[in-house]
Structure formats: C-alpha cells, structure tokens
C-alpha cells in the first residue's frame, strides 16, 4: 500500500501510527477531526479489532463520530466521561511553542472543548504545518448567526490595534451556501498573514459578543508528532522538553500498512 500513498499522506499516516503508542487499555480518548486525525482513528480501529484494545472515544465532529463507529471504536459523549486521558488531533499550523491554528474543518469549538478536558493533547501533522509565526493559515472564528454583520464589524475594529499583516475577513462558504458548524453556527476566516501576539489576539476575540470560539490553541497542546514522507517521525514533548526521532520502514514490502488499506 505504501506506494499508493502520496508523501503527504504517508507523513500523516506514520504520525498517526506513532500517536497510537500513547494509547492504553481503558483510556478515554478524544478523537480529532480532519484527514490526519482520520488516519489515527483508522489505526485505533485496527487495534480495537485485531488486538482487543479497549478504549472509549469522544469525537470532535459528526464526521469523526461516523468514521469511529465504522471502524469499531466505542463512542461516548463528553458528558458521560467528563474527563479524557488523551486527545489526538491534527492542526492547520503549529509554532515552536506548540501553539496552534485549528479549525480548517470548522470543528475547532468541539476540538478545543475536548482537548482542554484532556490530561494531554497530542497533535499529529506533516511537516508543512510548522510555521515560525502563526497566521499564514486564515484564522477560523465560529460566530452565532444572529447579528453576523455586527459581529464581523466588531472583529474588524478589534483587528485595527493588533499586530497582524492582513485584516480581510471572509465568511466560510460550502458551495454557494454558508458553511454551518456542527453547533449550527457560522465561520468567519480571518486572513491575517502574520499574528504577532497570538495569546492577546485570542483573548481579545473571546471578548467580542457573538464570537463562540476562535481557532487559536494557546498552551493546550503538549506534544507534536510530525511525519515525513521518507518515514521519519519526530516527537516533541513540550512538557518534558524532550525530542525523539523514530524511523519507519516505508518500503513497499513493509507491513506497517496491514489492513488499513482494506
Ligand atoms: C478541523 C481541524 C483539523 O485538525 C485541521 O484542519 C487539520 O486538518 P488536516 O489533518 O486534514 O490537514 O482543525 O477543524
């Protein structure tokens, strides 16, 4: 199967595979959203099926819930378990302090609730997600539909005093209709190009009435696992200040892909 994967998919897959090392029997696991998290869910499903792994999963989106059910992971709600051992999720950007921009899939509200209800958050990514400064990826902000134009105007005003390079705000669309989140809200994408002070911007955005949540994850992520197309995986744990490199053998005859392709 390895030859069927693009280098980016290979990178996502091996990052996801490495993240399964941190999952133990009996854990409550937050299941992220997006294509990288989907690889992790596939890998977990394989462990449930083939190794009898016993975990409960809390999905961060309806899409993730559907995939998790499909691969045989027991799904529970956050209300049921209240606290999670671990969340594994993808990201749109991460910086050297493991601060993130998330919400490319519009799921950042639930992703943030689940991650902050977890003992530990692990981000899995390919190397394209690493940035010196957050902001090249448009910052998603989930807003309630009521008073959309007023909320957008207030965000525009808020940005005037901020250390950013762009101030363009676009409502996210799905075809010719507004994109609607799992919570029934809308998304404004802030094209800022550079965010000089992400902590301050996040704090200020949360003061705007109508804003439900923004996609800046500050001091939430504990570890980033980055896959590379050549089979190298780097693991950086910010809580212990450790880094590790793991090499996967991704030749065609390798069996790390067993079952996943089926
Ligand atoms: C969804 C997210 C995703 O984690 C993020 O968009 C990364 O997605 P992908 O793994 O497909 O690149 O935040 O809201």
Please supply descriptive tags for the structure shown above.
Rossmann fold, 28% helix, eight-stranded mixed β-sheet, alpha/beta, disordered C terminus, globular, four-stranded antiparallel β-sheet, Alpha-Beta Plaits, 25% strand, 17 strands, 262 residues, binds ribulose-5-phosphate, 2 domains
Structural description of this entry:
This protein is an alpha/beta fold and 262 residues long. Helices cover 28% and strands 25% of the residues. It has seven helices and 17 strands. α1 crosses α2 and α2 packs parallel to α3. The radius of gyration is 18 Å and the shape is globular. The chain starts with 6 loop residues before the first helix and ends in a 15-residue tail after the last strand. The site of ribulose-5-phosphate has 18 residues, from α2 and α5.
Would you summarize the structure shown here?
This protein is of the alpha/beta class and 262 residues long. It folds into 2 domains: 2-131 and 219-248, 3-Layer(aba) Sandwich (Rossmann fold), CATH 3.40.50; 139-211, ACT domain (Alpha-Beta Plaits), CATH 3.30.70.260. The protein has helices at residues 7-19, 35-51, 62-70, 78-81, 108-116, 148-160, 198-205, and strands spanning 28-31, 56-59, 74-75, 86-89, 93-94, 100-101, 121-126, 139-143, 168-171, 173-174, 177-178, 186-191, 211-214, 216-217, 223-227, 232-237, 242-247.
